[in-house]
Amino acid sequence: MRLLVLGGTVNLSRAVAAEGVRRGHEVTCAARGTSGAVPEGAELIEVDRTRPLPDLGRYDAVVDVARQPSWVRSAVAAYPDSHWVFVSTVNVYADDATPHGTPATLPLVEAIEEDVDLAERPEAYGPMKVACERIVLDGATSAMVIRPGLIVGPGDPTGRFSYWPRRLAAGGEVLAPGDPGDLMQVADVRDLAAWAVTASEQRTIGVYDGVGEPLPMADLLTQCADGVAAECSFTWVDQAFLQEQQVEPWMGPDAIPLWLPRPEYDGLPAHDVRPSLDAGLTIRPLADTTADTLAWLEATPDAPVSGISLDRERELLAAWHARPPR
Fold first, then answer.
1. What's the pLDDT at 41?
2. C-alpha span between 77 and 86 (Å, rounded)
3. Distance CA 126, CA 90 (A)
4. 44-52, long-range: CB within 8 Å, 24+ apart, which pairs?
């Protein structure tokens, strides 16, 4: 199979290219080449997607991760007869509160058809992806859309999940955020990449969420701890206290990653994964993802890791233990 990856230098698009090469496909990555190297065995063709794509030949399948509608519009026009796998996001959904949603049950935000600078309007990310999806589904002969949630694993450029392998491996008393029963799901980048390549081979069509199994946070953190053979104990600190202490959710230097305010975000990390499993997604054990992420962190000293420091965590735990009885 001749596979064109629009990107191929960072995170999921790079993992797709690597998986394609591993399976013996002829892989071309079309990118500026400024964000990193393509995997060994893949060909890089330098392109500027602010301009129309040049004629790169005929491809059996195209995988694209773009968020700018004009880029996707140009690419679909250039390769309408290839099978398309477009990587979107769960941020296309207008409902973040309802658990166990699927593409068939959840409403979408209103599309933004023009390119928007996300530095000025970060809220345009989901709406632009909606527009990109429509361009692909309407313009390509056959197409599949994957809407990932939180993508994790080695090479993660956000550092959100990476916080946990490093923190758990350090051991001791660990601040566990929110309620132990809060649902959370993550997807290993390599599992999503393998699915995208399989979908390209089989010309799978439809719209699916790229998510892992939704797990109670207590189970998720326990599985992560098992992956790094952690000697630790969890102290569960409730949402109200964390908010009082001005701890940020999700990501950032003052955040505890994987923690989201509830109930307004009960649905965002708890999509129904069954339709995706039925469509060919396979999920590796979370302990394996955690172990591999820690190995990558240890081999990559400058790898990004989001989240609070150990000193800040100790301060929060001391304040939690010292609080008056309620």
1. 98
2. 14
3. 8
4. 44/8, 49/6, 49/74, 49/75, 52/78
Q: What angle do CA 72, 78, 81 make, to 5 degrees?
A: 100
Beta strand pairing status for 215-216 and 183-184?
antiparallel
Domain 2-321, CATH among 3.40.50.620, 3.20.20.70, 3.40.50.300, 3.40.50.720:
3.40.50.720
Residue spans of the domains in the chain: they are 2-321
Q: What is the pLDDT of residues 31-72, one digit of tens each?
A: 988 888 999 999 999 999 988 888 888 999 999 999 999 999
Yes or no: say if 304 and 133 are a contact pair by the CB < 8 Å rule. no
Alpha helices in the chain (DSSP H): 11-22, 69-78, 125-139, 163-170, 189-202, 217-227, 239-244, 274-278, 286-299, 310-322
Q: Which two tokens stand for residue 274?
A: 């069954």
Residue 88: which of 143, 41, 50, 48 has the closest Cα?
143
With contact defined as beta carbons under 8 Å apart, do 219 and 258 qualify? no
Tell if the pTM clears 0.85, that is, is over it.
yes
One-letter amino acid at 11 equals N
Distance CA 184, CA 206 (A): 24
pLDDT computed for residue 15 by the predictor: 98
* Region of residue 57 (left: phi > 0; alpha: psi -120 to 50; beta: else): left
Contact partners, residue 191, CB within 8 Å, separation at least 6: 212, 281, 282, 283, 284
Task: Give the DSSP H/E element, type plus range, for residue 209.
Answer: strand 206-210
How many Å apart are CA 325 and CA 177, to the nearest integer?
19
Q: Tens digits of per-residue pLDDT, 86-130?
A: 999 999 999 999 999 999 999 999 999 999 999 999 999 999 999
